[in-house]
C-alpha cells in the first residue's frame, strides 16, 4: 500500500507547515547550489541560508493556512487571505532573522550596548 505524503500532511496545520518547509527549502537549496557553483557563497553560507528559508517558508505556509481557515469565504477570499498572511509571516520572519544576525555580528557584549539601544538603532 503506497504512502501519500501530501494528503497526510494536509490534515493538520503543522503538516501543512512541513509541506511548505519542504517546498521552500527545496527552492532555497536549488538557489544556493547555483550560487555555490558560481563560488559566490561558501558551503556554510549556503547551509545557513537554506535552513533559514526552510523554516521561514514552513512558518509562513502554516500561518497562511490558519488565516485562510479562520476567514473562510470563497476561493478568491481564501487565496487572498492566504497570500497576505503568508507574505506578512515571511516578512516578519526575515526581519527577525536580520535583527538577530546583526546583533550577533555586532557583538553586543563587546560594545556594551543595551538591548534597547540595539533595537532603537535597528528600527531607525
| Biggest sheet statistics | none
Question: End-to-end distance, in Å?
Answer: 57 Å
User: Structural class, please?
Assistant: mainly alpha
Give the % helix: over 70%
Number of strand elements: 0
The amount of beta strand, in percent, is under 5%
Mean pLDDT: 90
Low-pLDDT runs: none
Determine the number of helices (DSSP H or I, runs of at least 4 residues): 6
- How many structural domains does the protein architecture include? 1
Q: What is the overall silhouette?
A: globular
Cytoplasmic side: 2-8, 86-124
Subunit structure: Probably interacts with MamA.
Organism: Paramagnetospirillum magneticum (strain ATCC 700264 / AMB-1)
GO molecular function, one term: metal ion binding
Provide structural commentary.
- Helices cover 84% and strands 0% of the residues.
- The mean pLDDT is 90.
- With 124 residues, the chain is an all-alpha fold.
- It has one domain.
- It contains 6 helices and no strands.
- The chain crosses the membrane at residues 9-29, 65-85.
- Keywords: Biomineralization, Iron, Magnetosome, Membrane, Metal-binding, Transmembrane, Transmembrane helix.
- This is Magnetosome protein MamC.
- Residues 36-56 are annotated as: MIC, when fused with the C-terminus of maltose-binding protein (MBP) or expressed as a fragment, improves quality of iron particles during precipitation experiments, binds magnetite.
Amino acid at each position: 500500500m503506497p504512502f501519500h505524503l501530501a494528503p497526510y500532511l494536509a490534515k493538520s496545520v503543522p503538516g501543512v507547515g512541513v509541506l511548505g518547509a519542504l517546498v521552500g527549502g527545496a527552492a532555497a537549496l536549488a538557489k544556493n547550489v547555483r550560487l555555490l557553483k558560481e563560488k559566490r557563497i561558501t558551503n556554510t553560507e549556503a547551509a545557513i541560508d537554506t535552513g533559514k528559508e526552510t523554516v521561514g517558508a514552513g512558518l509562513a505556509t502554516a500561518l497562511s493556512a490558519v488565516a485562510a481557515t479562520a476567514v473562510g469565504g470563497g476561493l478568491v477570499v481564501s487565496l487572498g487571505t492566504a497570500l497576505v498572511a503568508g507574505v506578512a509571516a515571511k516578512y516578519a520572519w526575515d526581519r527577525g532573522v536580520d535583527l538577530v544576525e546583526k546583533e550577533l555580528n555586532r557583538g553586543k557584549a563587546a560594545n556594551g550596548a543595551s538591548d534597547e539601544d540595539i533595537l532603537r538603532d535597528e528600527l531607525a
